Amino acid sequence: MSAVPVPAPAPRTVAAVSAGLLLGVLLSALDQMIVAAALRTIAGRLGGAEVQAWAMSAYLVASVVSTPVYAKLSDVYGRRPLYIASVGVFLAGSLLCGLAWSMPALAVFRAVQGLGAGGLMALALAILADLLPPERRVRHQAWLGAAYAVASVAGPVLGGFFAGAGTVLGIDGWRWAFLVNLPVGLAALALVAGALPRPVRGRAQRIDLLGAALLVAAVVPVLLLAEFGAEWGWASPASAAAGAVAAAGTVLFVRTERAMGDDALLPPRLFRSRTFTLVNAVNFAAGIGIFGGLLLLPLHLQAVMGLSPTAAGLMLVPQTAAIIAAGRIAGPIAVHGGHRPMLVLSVAWMAGSAAGFAALGADSPLWAVGLLAAAMGLGTGVFFQVVVVALQDGVPPEDVGVASGLFTFFRQIGGTVGTVALGALAFGLGPLEDSIGTAYLVVAGVLLASALLPLAARPQTASARRG
């Protein structure tokens, strides 16, 4: 069966489902930030510091490759059972991580967590698209985007607290970095499972198992190369093997998807839509700049300006507040007024903000940092909302699930590339103060190039989108 929009739900149903989806997205976003902040302490307690990077990489790889799978399966079997499965797997992984006895075991359990996390954001977007028309949907989508902004501030603080606590309720403090997910996840599960209507039966489809396996073969080597290429050596046999496997996997995956047609994991017909293809190109390219920039600002505040982790976290509050405010305002405007100009302006605005960050030094006033952070937040909040509206406008309702999965997938890939590449740039070009400025100029350039991509798309009116 295929997931199709259900009749207009009662306001109470919408409120319960939206709250549950928000908790799920917040759960995923917070988990990454909390664990990143606590990982060094965890490795010290469990031993095996030499493999601690795998605890992050296993989660990342599993979540990225599972995202389009959840999205496509939700189009076949319905959103509700797949969302329940996603949260359930994430909670099982969290419990196992909290019970881990070694770093290798933790890495395996983090992969289980990642397999669950892959469905949380993509399915949240698809569920809201099923339940609500665009003009009502954007208000709820704004809160999903805000969850990531809140997590960027709250996550490191919570991670530091759990890492520094000896015991909490008789349990080692670091274990709460994972166990804290359980009550939040159970609440999300109860809200969504209790309120979300059961799926409506639709057209039977084949399951593209071969495509899913080949996607893993194509993507996993790329992610591993991004994470460990510098350590392995870019010209090493391991890097060459990863590149060869990725290339072969990509070729075979494309051939398989063409053969599967409408039942493909990534239906080729979606990429024949100019709007869909360009939106995802912008999403990927801007993801490089946005998530790379999110790495650079805390690094600049702590390593260059000498702020404590807590003070650096507080300096991110203006950016968080701006993301939330801009998202709430931008969505309704994009629905009624067309999204192309807003995409161009929001990404160009972020490029200008990144260029401003490049001019900062060790003695820059904190008010200037806060002002630039707020400016970047405004552009980010507008972009996060408008790009979702543009994506969902570019596909028919029956493809919203798989389209949302691809949207999340490309953003994750772009974010991974940006974080790894800009981190390497910041630490590899001499004095950190100078290299961070150079890295910010790269961010500005990538974002400016991203701003030019929507100009290739035909304008789309509100009436055309509704029709």
UniProtKB/TrEMBL annotation:
One of the Pfam families matching this protein, by short name: MFS_1
The protein's name in its UniProt record: EmrB/QacA subfamily drug resistance transporter
InterPro entries on file: EmrB-like (IPR004638), MFS (IPR011701), MFS_dom (IPR020846), MFS_trans_sf (IPR036259)
Keywords: Cell membrane, Membrane, Transmembrane, Transmembrane helix, Transport
Record's GO cellular component terms: plasma membrane
Database matches in Gene3D superfamilies: MFS general substrate transporter like domains, Multidrug resistance protein D
Keyword Transmembrane helix in annotation: yes
Family: Belongs to the major facilitator superfamily. TCR/Tet family.
Domain Major facilitator superfamily (MFS) profile: residue ranges: 17-462
